[in-house]
Design brief:
With 106 residues, the chain is mainly alpha-helical. The chain is built from 3 helices and 2 strands, in the order H-E-E-H-H. It has a two-stranded antiparallel ribbon with strand order 1-2. Its main location: nucleus. Pfam families: SRF-TF.
């Protein structure tokens, strides 16, 4: 039995959308596992559903940290540095506010 092509657009019915998400997620994870086994590839998939549920797949032969470290090394970037810099700047501002408030209290 041949399957017809479907138009790729948002599924309006929430129940149908969730069922389709679940089936396609499982299919995607199955394909990820197959490429891991057949080609010895390292695969990581992170998905967030429209309801906010987290689903992830990572090849059994690796960890998420190892894969992201290799990703950074290959691209020559540091995906955490900008986040760290923003946090450091925020900490500096909070310390300054804290210092000013302490002066006002005295």
């Amino acid at each position: 039995m041949a399957r017809g092509k479907i138009q790729i657009k948002r599924i309006e019915n929430p129940t149908n959308r969730q069922v389709t998400y679940s089936k396609r997620r499982n299919g995607l994870f199955k394909k990820a596992n197959e490429i891991t086994v057949l080609c010895d590839a390292k695969v990581s998939i992170i998905m967030l559903s429209s309801t906010g549920k987290l689903h992830e797949y990572i090849s059994p032969s690796t960890t998420t940290k190892q894969l992201y470290d290799q990703y950074q090394k290959t691209l020559g970037i540091d995906i955490w540095s900008s986040h760290y810099e923003r946090m450091h700047e925020n900490l500096r501002k909070l310390k300054e506010i804290n210092r000013n408030l302490r002066r006002q209290i005295r």
